[in-house]
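hi support,

uploading two proteins for the ticket. first:
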Amino acid sequence: MDFFYNAAFQTEDFVKLRKYLEKYGSMPQEKRLPALVTGVSHIHKAHFLSALIREHSPALIIAESEGEAQRLCSDINAMNGSETALLYPTRELALGTYEAASREYEYKRIYALSSLLSGKCLAAVCSAEAAAQLTIPPSELQKRTVTLESGCECSQQELVEQLISAGYSRADMIEGAGQFSVRGGIVDIFPPSSPEPCRVEFWGDTVDSISRFDTESQRRTEGIEKIDISPASETLFDSGESLCAKIEELIKKLRGKKAEDIREGLLSDVNRIRSEEHTSELQS
C-alpha cells in the first residue's frame, strides 16, 4: 500500500497537484481555482486518488458513469486496503404504485454516508447522477444514528421510537436489513451498515448486553460493547403521528377526478406509518 503512495509522491505532476490542494483546498469556494489533470489513464487516476485521499479526506469522487465509479472504487481499495473507498450508487426510481421494492441501493448509499461521517472510510465514489440525487443531510444522519453501549441508560420503548423515526420497520422475526423485532426484554436490530444483526438485551431501563447473532439459527455469535445504528432510510420524519396528521389534512383538501384513488393511496400510507412500517414504499 505504501508503495503506491510513495510512488505517486515521486511524480512531478502529482507534487504540483498536491501543492495546489494544500494551498487552495481550505479556502472559501469563491476563492478556489480550477485544477485540471489531463492525459491520465484509468489506473493512474486511481493511483493519484489513492494517494490524495490519504491526506485530503473525507472525499467525494465523481466518475462519468456508475461502471467507472465501481472500477475506481475497486482499484483504490486494491491500492489502499479494503473499504478505503465505498461506492455511493445511484438511487433507483420506481414510478407508480408498488407493494414491494428492493432497498439494496438505498442501504448502500446510507452505509457509504455513515462510513464517511464516522471516518471508517476515506472516500465515496459515485456517478454524476448519484451525486445530483438528494439524500439525508450529514447533521440529520448524525442525529438519527443511535449509539448504544453496554450498561448505558436507555428504555426499550425509547429505543423502539428511535428506530421507527430512523426508518426501521417492525417485524416478528428479522429477515433482512432495516428491520427490528421486540420479544420481552430483547430488541433485535439489523442496521444496513452491519453485516449481521445485533441483539440488545435490557435490564429495566439499562442496556444489559449487546451481541451479534445469526439470522438463520437466531444464536448469538459474539458480544460487543458498543454499536452505532445508522438510519435505515433516506426518507425520515420526526414523528409518525405528526406526519399522519399532515397527510390526513391533505386528504381533506383533495378535489378532482382522481381524488378518490389518491385518497386511498394516502390512507394506505397512514396505515403503514401507524403500523410502524418504514417510509420507503409510501405512495405520497
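and the second one:
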Amino acid sequence: MSKILRSPLFLMAFTIFIDMAGFALILPLLPFWAEHLGASATQVGLILTIYALAQFIFTPILGRLSDRYGRKKIIAASLLIEAASFALTALAGSLPVLLIARFIGGIGASNIGSAQAVVSDVTPPEGRARGMGMIGAAIGLGFVVGPAIGGVLAPIGATLPFWVAMSVAIANALLVILFLPETRKSRATTGSNTTRGNVLFAGWQYVLKSGVLARLIAINLLFTVAFTAMEAVFPLFTQKTFGWTAMQNGYLFTYVGFIIVIMQGGLVGQLVKRFGERKLAIAGMVMLATGLLMLTISVNLALLLIALGILSVGDGAVTPTISTLLSFASPEDAQGETLGVAQGVAGLGRVIGPLVAGSLFQFSGASMPFFVGGLVIALATLFLLPTLPSRPMQVEAHLDSLPDTSDEQSFSVTGKR
C-alpha cells in the first residue's frame, strides 16, 4: 500500500482529483453568479467560452514547457494561477472583471496535457489505458465531491464556494511541490533548442503531418463541443424545466461524476483488453449521442437520470481511450506537447460549445443545445472513428511512416517506448 501511495501515477491522480474538485465546486454556482452580475444566457456561455479560450492558447504551451523543464514545476505554477483566478472571481463586481478572472482560471487549468504526460512517463504501453483511466476517474471523482460541496456552500454565502476553491488550489500546489516526484527531467537548452522560433507551433506542425493524430484530435474536438455545450446550459435547462437551483444541480453533477468514476476507475481497463480502444471509443460515442438526444425529451426526473446515466457512461469510455491512442501516436519525448495540443484543441471546443449553446438556448429553445450536440457526436462517430486503427500497436506503428523532423522540432518522431 505504501508503494502505491508513493507512486507518481497515484499522486498525479490525487492531484487531479483535488484540482477538479476545486473547479467543480463552483460549477453549479457560476451561471447564477454571472446572472447576478447581469449576464444573459448568451453571456453565461461567453464566460465559459473565455475560460476555454485561455485553455486553447496555453495548454500546448504548458505541455511544451513541461517537456523541456519538467512536469512538476509547470503543474505547481498552474495551480497557483488557478488559486488567483478563484479569488478574483469572488471579488468580481462586474461582468468584465468576471471575464478576466475566468480567462486567468483557464490559464491555470491548462495543465491537463502535462498531467497526462506524467501518465505516459510512468506507464508501459500495455498499461496506458488503465493509467489514463485513473486520471479520468480522478476527474470524475472530483465532479462527485466538488459540486456536492458547492451545492451545500452556495446557500451559506454567494462567494464562499470561490474562496473555498482558492484554498483547495493552494493546498494542491503545496502537495505537488512537496510530494510529486519529477517524471520528466529538464532538457538542455543547447543545440537545436537554441533556435526554436517555432517553439509554440512545433506540436501543431507534427499533428498536421500525422493523419492518425489529426483524426483523433478532430474526434476530441467534436466530443468536447457537444459535451461542454451541455454543461454550459444544463443548470439553466433544469431551472426553466423544473425550477431547480444550484443545490439540485450540484446533486445531479455529483450523480454524473459518480458514474464516470465507476467507468474509468474500474471498467475501462478491462473493456479495453477485451474490445480494444477503437471499439470502446465508438460505443462510448454512440452512448453520448443517445444521452444527449434523450435530454431533449426529459420532462421528468426519471428520464433525466436515465439520459445523464447513458451520457456519463459514454464519457467514461471515450475520454481515456482517445487519450491513450493519442499517447501511442506521439513521440516519447513530446508527450506533454502532443497531449497539450490535443487538450488545446479541446479548449477550442470549450470556446465553441458554451457560446453556441447559450445562443441556441436563448433563441431556439432550452433543449436545442442537446439536440445539436447529439447530432455532432453522431456525425463524428459515423465519419471519423471507423477510419482509426483498431489496435494500439497499429497506431504506434504509424510513427515509423512519418518523416524525421527532429532537426526542426527537437524530437525524434520514431522514438519508441
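thanks. also noticed: Confidence is low (pLDDT under 50) at residues 186-197, 392-417.
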